[in-house]
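Protocol step 4 of 5: obtain the predicted structure for the target chain.
Materials: sequence only (see below). No template structures provided, no constraints applied. The aim of this step is simply to have a reference model before the mutagenesis design in step 5. Sequence pasted as it appears in the construct record:
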Amino acid sequence: MRLLANGHPAFRRLLVSYENFFLSQVQQTAACNAVHSTQARACKWLLRMNDLVGPEFLLTQEFLAQLMGVRRTSVTGVAGELQKAGMISYSRGRIHLTNLEQLAACACECHHDVRSHYRRMFHSNEEDSPAPAKVRPRREPQLTLRE
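Step 4 output (C-alpha coordinates):
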Protein backbone atom coordinates (compact mmCIF):
# COMPACT_ATOMS: atom_id res chain seq x y z
CA MET A 1 0.00 0.00 0.00
CA ARG A 2 2.90 2.32 0.77
CA LEU A 3 4.30 1.79 -2.74
CA LEU A 4 0.90 2.51 -4.25
CA ALA A 5 0.48 5.67 -2.14
CA ASN A 6 3.97 6.89 -3.01
CA GLY A 7 3.30 6.33 -6.71
CA HIS A 8 -0.11 8.00 -6.77
CA PRO A 9 -0.31 11.41 -5.07
CA ALA A 10 -4.12 11.59 -5.28
CA PHE A 11 -4.42 8.24 -3.50
CA ARG A 12 -1.93 9.38 -0.86
CA ARG A 13 -3.95 12.58 -0.24
CA LEU A 14 -7.08 10.46 0.16
CA LEU A 15 -5.36 8.23 2.72
CA VAL A 16 -4.10 11.24 4.68
CA SER A 17 -7.58 12.80 4.61
CA TYR A 18 -9.12 9.59 5.87
CA GLU A 19 -6.51 9.32 8.61
CA ASN A 20 -7.33 12.88 9.72
CA PHE A 21 -11.06 12.15 9.63
CA PHE A 22 -10.64 8.93 11.59
CA LEU A 23 -8.55 10.69 14.26
CA SER A 24 -11.15 13.43 14.63
CA GLN A 25 -13.88 10.77 14.90
CA VAL A 26 -11.95 9.04 17.69
CA GLN A 27 -11.54 12.35 19.52
CA GLN A 28 -15.26 13.12 19.12
CA THR A 29 -16.14 9.68 20.50
CA ALA A 30 -13.87 10.15 23.52
CA ALA A 31 -15.48 13.51 24.29
CA CYS A 32 -18.94 12.06 23.70
CA ASN A 33 -18.29 9.19 26.11
CA ALA A 34 -17.19 11.69 28.76
CA VAL A 35 -20.16 14.06 28.64
CA HIS A 36 -23.25 12.49 27.05
CA SER A 37 -25.79 10.18 28.61
CA THR A 38 -25.97 6.48 27.83
CA GLN A 39 -29.32 7.04 26.14
CA ALA A 40 -28.04 9.81 23.85
CA ARG A 41 -24.97 7.76 22.92
CA ALA A 42 -27.07 4.64 22.22
CA CYS A 43 -29.29 6.65 19.88
CA LYS A 44 -26.17 7.99 18.16
CA TRP A 45 -24.81 4.48 17.62
CA LEU A 46 -28.15 3.22 16.32
CA LEU A 47 -28.29 6.09 13.82
CA ARG A 48 -24.75 5.26 12.72
CA MET A 49 -25.75 1.64 12.15
CA ASN A 50 -28.70 2.89 10.08
CA ASP A 51 -26.28 4.91 7.95
CA LEU A 52 -24.12 1.84 7.38
CA VAL A 53 -26.64 -0.96 6.85
CA GLY A 54 -30.20 0.42 7.00
CA PRO A 55 -32.95 0.30 9.61
CA GLU A 56 -32.76 -3.42 10.37
CA PHE A 57 -29.63 -5.22 11.52
CA LEU A 58 -28.18 -7.73 13.93
CA LEU A 59 -26.71 -6.15 17.05
CA THR A 60 -26.67 -7.66 20.50
CA GLN A 61 -27.04 -5.54 23.59
CA GLU A 62 -23.72 -6.96 24.76
CA PHE A 63 -21.93 -5.71 21.63
CA LEU A 64 -23.60 -2.29 21.82
CA ALA A 65 -22.51 -2.05 25.46
CA GLN A 66 -18.92 -2.83 24.39
CA LEU A 67 -19.09 -0.16 21.65
CA MET A 68 -20.27 2.38 24.19
CA GLY A 69 -18.01 1.31 27.06
CA VAL A 70 -20.90 0.67 29.45
CA ARG A 71 -22.38 -2.35 31.22
CA ARG A 72 -24.91 -4.48 29.37
CA THR A 73 -27.53 -3.69 32.00
CA SER A 74 -27.30 0.00 31.06
CA VAL A 75 -27.97 -0.82 27.42
CA THR A 76 -30.82 -3.16 28.38
CA GLY A 77 -32.55 -0.34 30.25
CA VAL A 78 -32.09 2.16 27.42
CA ALA A 79 -33.20 -0.36 24.77
CA GLY A 80 -36.34 -1.07 26.78
CA GLU A 81 -37.14 2.64 27.01
CA LEU A 82 -36.51 3.15 23.29
CA GLN A 83 -38.76 0.21 22.46
CA LYS A 84 -41.55 1.47 24.76
CA ALA A 85 -41.29 4.88 23.08
CA GLY A 86 -41.72 3.25 19.65
CA MET A 87 -38.28 4.19 18.34
CA ILE A 88 -36.99 0.64 17.96
CA SER A 89 -38.16 -2.93 18.11
CA TYR A 90 -35.75 -5.65 19.06
CA SER A 91 -35.68 -9.33 19.77
CA ARG A 92 -32.73 -11.70 20.23
CA GLY A 93 -30.10 -9.46 18.70
CA ARG A 94 -32.20 -8.22 15.77
CA ILE A 95 -32.95 -4.50 15.91
CA HIS A 96 -35.38 -2.61 13.71
CA LEU A 97 -35.31 1.19 13.86
CA THR A 98 -38.91 2.29 13.64
CA ASN A 99 -38.70 6.06 14.18
CA LEU A 100 -35.50 7.66 12.86
CA GLU A 101 -36.61 11.23 13.53
CA GLN A 102 -37.33 10.51 17.17
CA LEU A 103 -34.00 8.65 17.50
CA ALA A 104 -32.22 11.66 15.99
CA ALA A 105 -34.00 13.98 18.43
CA CYS A 106 -32.81 11.84 21.37
CA ALA A 107 -29.25 11.37 20.10
CA CYS A 108 -26.43 13.64 21.10
CA GLU A 109 -25.14 16.08 18.49
CA CYS A 110 -22.03 13.96 17.88
CA HIS A 111 -23.67 11.92 15.10
CA HIS A 112 -24.52 15.08 13.19
CA ASP A 113 -21.09 16.60 13.87
CA VAL A 114 -19.19 13.55 12.57
CA ARG A 115 -21.35 13.37 9.44
CA SER A 116 -20.84 17.09 8.80
CA HIS A 117 -17.09 16.74 9.22
CA TYR A 118 -17.06 13.80 6.79
CA ARG A 119 -18.98 15.81 4.18
CA ARG A 120 -16.60 18.76 4.53
CA MET A 121 -13.45 16.64 4.28
CA PHE A 122 -14.58 14.44 1.40
CA HIS A 123 -16.91 16.84 -0.40
CA SER A 124 -19.69 14.31 0.02
CA ASN A 125 -23.33 14.86 -0.87
CA GLU A 126 -24.35 12.39 1.85
CA GLU A 127 -26.75 15.02 3.22
CA ASP A 128 -29.06 14.19 0.32
CA SER A 129 -29.66 10.68 1.68
CA PRO A 130 -32.96 9.88 3.41
CA ALA A 131 -31.07 9.20 6.65
CA PRO A 132 -31.96 11.42 9.61
CA ALA A 133 -28.93 13.70 9.21
CA LYS A 134 -31.28 16.50 8.10
CA VAL A 135 -32.71 16.57 11.61
CA ARG A 136 -30.33 18.53 13.83
CA PRO A 137 -30.37 16.75 17.19
CA ARG A 138 -31.08 18.75 20.31
CA ARG A 139 -28.58 18.79 23.13
CA GLU A 140 -29.06 16.06 25.75
CA PRO A 141 -32.82 15.42 25.57
CA GLN A 142 -34.09 12.78 27.97
CA LEU A 143 -37.02 10.41 27.56
CA THR A 144 -39.60 10.63 30.29
CA LEU A 145 -41.37 7.32 30.10
CA ARG A 146 -42.11 6.64 33.75
CA GLU A 147 -44.84 9.24 34.14
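Step 4 remarks: Strands lie at 56-58, 88-91, 94-97. Residues 2-134 form a domain with the Arc Repressor Mutant, subunit A fold (CATH 1.10.10.10).
Proceed to step 5.
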